[in-house]
Amino acid sequence: MPLPVLVFQVTGFFLNLIIVCFIIYYFMQLRVREKAIEEKEKKVDTNYHQIVDDALSKERKILEDATTEADKILTDAKYVNSSSQKSVDQALEKMVGEIKTETDTTSKDFRKTYETSLQQIATTSLQNFQTVSKGLQTDLEAQIKKFHETLLPNMEKELESYKQSRLKQAEQVITKVVAEASQQILNKSISFEDHQRLMTESLEKAKQEGLFD
Amino acid sequence: MDKLDFSEFFHTKAQAADFAARLATISESIYQTSFNFEKALTETFGMDKKDKFLALIRTNNIAISSVDALKAFLTKTQADIATLPTLPITLAFEPQDQTLKVLSDWFALNVKRQVLFDIKVDHSLVAGAAMTFNGKFLDFSVKPKFDEILKNIMHPATQPASVQHQDLSTMHVGR
Q1: Quick one: pLDDT at residue A211?
Q2: Chain A residues with CB-CB distance to B103 below 8 A
Q3: Contact: A203, B106; criterion CB under 8 Å
Q4: What residue in B sits closest to A199 (Cα-Cα)?
Q5: pLDDT of residue A83
Q6: Reduced DSSP (H G I as helix, E B as strand, rest coil) percent helix, strand, coil of chain B, to 5
Q7: What is the phi/psi pair of residue B30, to 5°?
Q8: Contact, B99 vs A196, CB < 8 A?
């Protein structure tokens, strides 16, 4: 075997050995890191559980405190509520009594005022009515007096005049009717011969009067 | 030629106007060649009046054969009719032909002349007649007396005590 090939083989062997060593070293380092990470994880997990436990314990404590406090508040509130209701009831009863009293007083006052006003109005109205009645009576008497003094005689005069006028008209109508009726009756009661005779007599009269001269 | 007497032909103004109009128609056609006077008279007035008119012509010595003489007579006749006086007379009754004849005869007998009557009828006159002649109006009807009597009956207080009933002979003249 030539030397260069041997050298190359030996060198290659050593290089392979170095690479193997390096890979081993790498794996060993990787394992160390993995262990460190596991430890760290374990530690974190422990811390996590511890924190959760603490939180739970705190939570329970807070809940217990809140419940206790709420019970206390409720107890106090019930007390306050019943106390307040009692006070309110008493106040209301008192208020109702006062209002009732006040209402009675006010209604009595109002009634009294109303009666007084009514009495005053009635008195005033009666006085006004008496005044107006008296005025009306005076006016009426004056008008009746005036009517008797002036209008009545005039009316009587006009009535008499109207009566006379109507009587005159009626008389004229009656006269006309009587005249027409009498004329017609007389006219028809005369015979034709008498009419001719009277006509001739009229001509004789006219001749005597000198009408045809 | 004297005044002609038309008393046998007409009595009233309307009758006279009608007669004159018919004569005028005959007079206008008298010169026609085929004119026959007697025939024209008969057709215009009838047989009776034709004979009376021919008698009137003969009385006045008019020759019927002479157209000119006939024409002159007709003209004179129309002129005479136009000059006849009119007597407006109001009667209280409807006159008949007999009445007109009585009136006409009375005038012929008493006044000796013919007048044309213009007759109106007014029953309110009761009886008698009222007439106007030569501008004078005379009322000889019973109406004035009747009105007076009626007035006395309707207004007895205003009646004079001395007033007595009057007959037609005591009537007042005029209205």
Answers
A1: 84
A2: 199, 203
A3: yes
A4: B128
A5: 86
A6: 50, 15, 35
A7: -70, -25
A8: yes
What Rg, from alpha-carbon coordinates, does chain B have?
22
In this prediction, residue A21 carries a pLDDT of 94
Q: Which residue has the tokens 């006009």?
A: A158
pLDDT(A145) > 70? yes
All residues of chain A having their beta carbon less than 8 Å from the beta carbon of residue B136 are 211
Q: What is the pLDDT of residues A29-68, one digit of tens each?
A: 999 999 999 999 999 999 999 999 999 999 999 999 999 9
CB atoms within 10 A of CB B152: 14
Distance from CA of A161 to the nearest CA of B (A): 20
Q: How far apart are CA B132 and CA B145, in angstroms?
A: 19
Backbone φ/ψ region at A52: left (φ over 0), alpha (ψ -120 to 50), beta:
alpha
Exposed, middle or buried, B41 (CB in 10 Å: 0-12/13-18/19+)?
buried
**Residue A21, H or E segment:** helix A3-146
Could you tell me the CA-to-CA distances from B119 to A51, A212, B63 in Å, in that order? 165, 17, 37
Percent of chain A with pLDDT over 70: 100
Which residues in A lie closer than 8 A to residue B104 (C-beta atoms)? none
Contacting residues for B77 by C-beta, under 8 A, at least 6 apart: B4, B23
Q: Per DSSP, what are the bridge partners of residue B133?
A: B136
C-alpha distance from B147 to closest chain A C-alpha (Å) = 8
In the prediction, which pLDDT does A97 show?
Answer: 92
Its sign, for the CA torsion A74, A79, A82, A88, is: negative
Give the nearest partner residue to B128 out of A178, A183, A198, using CB atoms. Answer: A198
Contacts of B128 in chain A (CB under 8 A): 198-199, 201-202
Average pLDDT for runs of 10 along chain B of length 175: 79 93 92 89 92 91 89 92 92 91 89 90 92 89 88 70 49 45
Mean pLDDT of A122-147: 90
